Amino acid sequence: MFYIVSLTDIVRIPPSRLTNSLRNTAIGILKEKYESMISAELGYVIMIIDANADSIGKLVTGDGATYHKVTFKALTFFPKIQEIVEGEIIEITDFGAFVRIGPTDALLHLSQITDDYLKSDIKQGLIIANQSSRSLRIGSKMRARITAVSLGKGSSMGKIGITCRQPFLGSYDWIKDEIEKAKTPQTPKEKKGVTK
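Now predict its structure.
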């Protein structure tokens, strides 16, 4: 899920960077510090949107820089377990596929695609189901549910696991077929051996 969050920080502005407006300088420093950061509290920080720096700063003895309190807004992506996401397959591996969701990639393990037996063809960039002939390929657009999220200190890149082993999840083609099946009226089966 994407969020716009409000944050506050103290920004150190060295004398060499005081040539622009205080606001623009503060935004530049915040971009260097926060953009592309991953944290357990914020998720993935995508970009700094706006900032408001206090015009009165503080000086520290022996440091020529000024320190200003800055309130700013950032666009973040914070994946949550059970959330439904849409993405595109960007890589096929022996053990599944990587799906681009928002600013990051999530792992779709073979065991989380379907109940059918699956074969990965890395050279062709394809995963094929044995019985149903359903397939996933690089570039396939899909819908999935987040099953695991790890954004802690131990994972510098963050790790996300997804599944499409539920109705109306998977490739858009699969979902379209499931919707068509749901729309067609089911005819009641004739009972065998019953006479009127």
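The radius of gyration is 25 Å.
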